[in-house]
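Dock CA2; give full complex structure.
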Amino acid sequence: MKPILVLNGPNLNLLGQREPEIYGRETLADVEELCRAAAARLGHSALCRQSNREYELIDWIQAARGEAAAIVINPGAFSHTSVAILDALNAFAGPVIEVHISNIHRREAFRHHSYVSARADAVIAGAGVQGYEFAIARAAALVGRG
Ligand code: CA2
């Protein structure tokens, strides 16, 4: 079975190192392990990638066509700026679940809009890193449904 691709965008490599009151104490490695474990419990696998570069995220989304069953994505600040990531996701046929660790709607106004949400089948915000677990579960349910 094709893996669930888990993408994390810019600065999420710093998880656990700064701003624990917003993003918690877990590191990116912890999040990726949580995703692999959540996927495995549901009979899936998770392939995890992080990049600070918009083009690299776009290249991975393009490569996911035919190679991934679903995409779980925390686009970081690109959520609020990137039509290019939205366009790439629009070319992917499978389920797309958007995750934000923080509740972007309770934060600055510029974080309230996400371009990616126009494509996402579900959006999870404010559940902390547990949001990734919810996202994997939802992706698996949508993939399972065929
Ligand atoms: O809440 C989220 O998951 C965000 O996608 C995180 C982005 C932010 O730009 C979005 O508005 C909401 C920022 C990620 C930065 O991550 C850091 C983690 C620890 C320390 C510093 C930055």
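Observed: Residues 11-12, 14-15, 17-19, 23, 74, 76-77, 79, 100-102, 104, 111 surround CA2 (CB under 6 Å).
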